[in-house]
Amino acid sequence: MAKEEERTPEEWRELLRATYDYPEEIEDQPRRRRRRLRRTHRQAERERTAAWIAEQRRRESLRPATALVIVGAVLLAGVLSRYGPDWLGGGEDGSTGVTASVSPSPSADQDDKPAASASPADTGSASPSPSASVDLSDPETVAEEWTRHYLTRNPPVDEEHTAAVRRADPWAMPALTENLANSSDPAWDRLVSRGGVATVSAVTVKPAGADLPPDTPLRVWRTVTATVKVKGYTDYTEKTVLQAELTNSGEGWRVSRIVGV
Fold it and tell me: Which residues does residue 255 pair with via DSSP β-bridges, in sequence order?
């Protein structure tokens, strides 16, 4: 496993984008009491996150620009947690279902050729598959499926990195999908420059180390290691290590944050 590099400002912003999911016992309360309990829950979440980030700041050397980003994000998170539900119309029923349409992952074995020499038939548009029921009951399975679909890429077929984001969407929180779709992807650019097609041959999911927050009934962290095979101008295999946060919304587990992409 490669030594973890210093986190970038974007990765710190991802860690501070909390998605508040409330326990069922809170949601079952009357409206007025529910609002008070939600505020208490959000405050506890913010304090836990702030304590963890403070520990990370002691472990890692922060650049001045990174520190300013963190301070600004904390202030913004506080404002949104206080007034966000009212601004957005209350958000009383924000749950999502567990059934989604899953597009097929592009294959790197089309005639066993690099992408640069693929035939026109190989580079056509991928046909969508019928809707399939997505299992969100187990965080390890969710982390594996999200990683496998996100890192499987065929630039001639996908055309843009957002195709992989959409394939992984059934296992992700909407905020994570939106953030990845609207951000640049250096790994995609590197794959295109090498004329490569990437497939995931293996994924292992393990509990995160002690430097990440401990598991709770609603939120867990997992270390995900993917073996990615690339066929292109040069064939090679690489390992990608991600730190994934998974959140249980009451409808199942979904990936809510990713560190390492």
Answer: 172, 246
